[in-house]
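sry for the spam today, last one i promise. struct tokens for design, 280 residues
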């Protein structure tokens, strides 16, 4: 993929009838929010969209939440969703921009280009564009996974990056969680952050209307966090969802080789062999 990883509502609306377009609803809510992405999807979704369940299309051999699945399992799941190798893929979520970037990253980690609908369903509804309700019944297609290992970082790779002055690790969690002032939402995890990581909360990159900040604003926000978009980067967060928003923002600035630490704090915070600190 080259160019802006985002598409506008106008762009998508003009192409809804395209036979090569596949739209993915990637809505996901935190466990304590009392609703599910599937409920949101079946209530209202963009015409033709299929639902991608982040918790279901995941690695079943780990206790960590919604980790990247094995390539064969991912390919089978996308094929059942009616997504094929030659399709043009657009991903969105109901919140504006929250979980769609995660599925955008998963697709890229499996060798497929995709784009994210800027503003998501929130913007689509605000413009009174058409929606559908109920489940989808897509025709199965062939989807081939071509893993891109450089886009998915392990704990060991992240630990080495923290010690490498040529690299940076960016944490998308809130400042309170990063500093260890707020408890982690998942039980059994330490509070704090990786020593040497920089905090760039994902929410600072998303405008109130659910759209990603403009490139000049993104550059300023990265600079304010002490981060350099030109550096080799690993992004992290609580469980690998909002870290993808940082990767999406960097892709918008032309940096498409950003790795995401899939285990994120769900793994790091639960492993006593990995260092953690509190404070700024």
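last one done:
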């Amino acid at each position: 993929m080259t160019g802006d990883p985002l598409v506008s509502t106008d762009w998508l609306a003009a192409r809804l009838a395209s036979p090569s377009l596949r739209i993915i609803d990637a809505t996901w809510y935190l466990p304590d929010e009392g609703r599910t992405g599937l409920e949101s999807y079946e209530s209202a979704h963009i015409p033709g969209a299929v639902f991608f369940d982040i918790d279901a299309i995941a690695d079943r051999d780990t206790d960590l939440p919604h980790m990247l699945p094995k390539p064969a399992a991912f390919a089978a799941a996308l094929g059942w969703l009616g997504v094929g190798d030659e399709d043009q893929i657009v991903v969105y979520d109901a919140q504006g921009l929250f979980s769609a970037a995660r599925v955008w990253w998963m697709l890229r980690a499996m060798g497929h280009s995709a784009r994210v609908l800027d503003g998501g369903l929130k913007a689509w509804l605000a413009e009174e564009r058409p929606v559908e309700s109920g489940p989808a019944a897509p025709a199965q297609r062939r989807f081939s996974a071509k893993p891109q290992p450089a886009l998915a970082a392990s704990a060991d790779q992240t630990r080495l990056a923290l010690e490498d002055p040529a690299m940076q690790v960016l944490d998308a969690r809130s400042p309170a969680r990063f500093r260890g002032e707020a408890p982690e939402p998942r039980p059994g995890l330490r509070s704090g952050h990786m020593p040497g990581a920089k905090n760039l909360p994902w929410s600072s990159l998303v405008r109130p209307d659910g759209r990603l900040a403009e490139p000049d604003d993104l550059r300023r926000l990265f600079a304010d966090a002490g981060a350099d978009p030109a550096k080799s980067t690993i992004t992290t967060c609580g469980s690998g969802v909002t870290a993808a928003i940082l990767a999406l923002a960097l892709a918008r600035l032309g940096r498409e080789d950003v790795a995401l630490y899939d285990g994120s704090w769900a793994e790091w915070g639960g492993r006593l062999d990995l260092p953690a600190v509190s404070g700024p």
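The first strand starts at residue 6 and ends at 7. ok im logging off now
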